[in-house]
Amino acid sequence: MANFFKRSITVVVLVAMIISIAACGATTNTTNTASSSTVAAAEAASTTVAAKEPITLRIFGCETEKTYPTGVQTDAVAKDIQDKLGITIDISDQSATPEKAKILVASGDIPDMVQILRTHIETLITNKQLLPLDDLLATNGPDIMKNAPLAVAYAKKYISMGQDKLYCIPAQVDPSGQMANPIAPYIRWDYYAELGYPAVNSYDDLLNVVAQMAAKHPTNEAGQKMFGFSMWFDWDTFAFGMLPGYQSGIQQLDPGLGYDEINKTEASWINDDNAFMWKGVRFWNKANRMGLLDPDALTQSYDQSLQKAGSNRVICSIAKWVQANTNKDLAAAGFPERGVEPLPPFEGTDGYWGGSKTMIGNDGRSWAISANCKYPDRAMDLLNYMFSEEGALTMYNGVKGDMWTENNGTYALTQKFTDTMNNDPNYVLTTGANKYNTWVGLGPTYQLPSKQTIHLLKDNAILRSTYTQVDKDYCTHYGVENVEDAVFKFAKRPIVDEYISKFTTVTPPTDINSGAQKIRAYYIKELPKMVLAKSDDELNSMIVKFRADLKAMDVDTIQKWYLDDFEKAKAIEQEFLDSVK
Questions:
Q1: CA torsion angle 264 269 271 275 (round to 10)
Q2: CA–CA distance, 210 with 228 (Å, rounded to integer)
Q3: What is the distance, to the nearest Å, from the Cα of residue 367 to the centroid of all Cα atoms in its chain?
């Protein structure tokens, strides 16, 4: 997940191709349009691929909802793809982290298909290890052209090393940009209710509430030790920035910067005592001094942290996905009134940044085909399937007829899906539903013609049908219909167009890049040490030294280059947005 912070790149001016693709015609998602002739051709060709010779494609894809086994995939979705396309999915690495992607690129041993950061894509383009996709798109990519024309145009002009060729296609195209809430303090709601719903409007309030819960509940339902927090600190500075980012709507950027997504401003957090990053540092330091932080937090991996949270051993997590199954697991154990729910932003804060439109996809999850792929046309068939509504419905929700149904254009999950999800903690791995969530070409809140989200569990009406008693109690308390409505009821962050990072410079000058890497390496190493400070005075002394060390690294000069580049990117972004209106 380190790529969460990496700056995306480019400074080229958007050309007429995007304008011509976007200006004509209309699809269900009116902000993501293509010419009428293109859409007509795509619709005529958009059918399930005819039976072809069975083949196997070796794939390196992004991290997904669950870690899956290396090798040939045997879940129901993988078998369905095998039946429809004649393609067997062979995963080259069961944990495709950005770090492993970097090693993969350096090795030169590129699988048939890869989904990696754009910086790696450009390295592979330079090394002539990727196949140009223009011709294959024309013959085997009708759904891509229909549903993601702007992503194609963007990649051709901005991720081609100036060649004006299509080498990759960013996944997760989502013009609707519905609200999403993956980051928030997710606390044991039954414990919170037991305390009488005390106000939580500051970091100290949150720590004090968790401390009261920990005192009353030292062990979980299985008799295992409970931790107030069990964070992971191996995702760069993510652990420090995520909670205050939720409260203030600031995203982290290297080197040592924060991006206000609404006001579209960027600033350094290094010397600003009130900056979001220092709030995170002080929060975790205090949590540790109060005995609320898992003693293994600073040394454990993300996977180890995930295992503890997933085993119902954590009172408060700062991300939704780490305890995604807690409520269902507790309900299955006979405790439907127990579980975790998100606390709204503190009163007086700007709140969570809501959601964003991604008409041009996520360039950190760009798909490409190796120049050595023996079956490039079949690889494009699979890509096209991922960008089709049929493919996205299947990869998010499972096999049609078994896990979901369609009736006159309206979609519904089956009772079998609900029962399996509620009773089988490994249902993602067995059914394949949402197993490949980051692979899908269309984002989870992409709107179907029925106005439902393509990931059906994110459709409000369907989502409510899966609620346990604790979810219903939470909604009653805040007077809302859906759990996430409570967060957005108090947040000030609307849906925004998020593109600026896609237009910042590809590769900074050598001296700037080298300096930025040193600065980043330094604060990744030093910030976790501050969690262990025994007092405010010791922490403050560490911060003074931290700032002095970075000043000696010429941090002001390095950051000024990035801030200037950010202003240039804003101008290019605006030109892009104007061109697709």
A1: 90
A2: 6
A3: 16
The values of phi and psi at residue 498, to 5°, are -110, 100
Single-letter amino acid code for the residue at 339:
G
| β 404-407/183-188 pair status | unpaired
Contacts made by residues 397-405, CB under 8 angstroms, sequence distance 24+: 397/433, 397/434, 397/455, 397/456, 397/457, 398/76, 398/77, 398/431, 398/432, 398/433, 399/76, 399/77, 399/80, 399/431, 399/432, 402/76, 402/431, 403/76, 403/431, 403/433, 404/456
Query: Which pLDDT value is given to residue 63?
Result: 62
Q: Which two tokens stand for residue 467?
A: 């609620």
Tokens 């401003």 sit on residue: 265
Q: Does domain 183-353+459-496 have CATH number 3.40.190?
A: yes
Question: Would you tell me how many other CB atoms lie within 10 Å of the CB of residue 366?
Answer: 24
CB 116 within 8 A of CB 63: no
Residue 61 to residue 438: CA distance in whole angstroms: 8
Query: pTM of the prediction?
Result: 0.73
Residue 231: Cβ within 10 Å count: 30
Q: What tokens were used for 495?
A: 């849906």
Evaluate the omega torsion of the peptide bond into residue 255 and state whether it is cis, within 30 degrees of 0.
yes
Tens of pLDDT, residues 449-508:
998 999 998 888 888 888 999 999 999 999 998 887 777 777 665 555 566 667 777 678
Are 339 and 471 in contact, with CB atoms under 8 Å apart? yes
Q: Give the domain ranges of the chain.
A: 2-172+357-454, 183-353+459-496, 500-579
**153, two tokens:** 């145009």
Is it true that 2-172+357-454 and 183-353+459-496 share their CATH fold?
Answer: yes
- Helix 149-158 and helix 16-23: axis angle, to 10°? 180
- Cα end-to-end distance, the chain, whole Å: 32
Q: What is the pLDDT of residues 496-554, one digit of tens each?
A: 556 666 777 767 899 999 999 999 999 999 999 999 999 999 999 999 999 999 999 99
Q: Which helix (H) or strand (E) holds 386?
A: helix 376-386
CA angle 299, 303, 306 (to 5 degrees): 100
CA distance linking residue 403 with residue 415, whole number of Å: 8
CATH architecture, range 2-172+357-454:
3-Layer(aba) Sandwich (3.40)
Look up residue 482 and give its two tokens.
């859906």
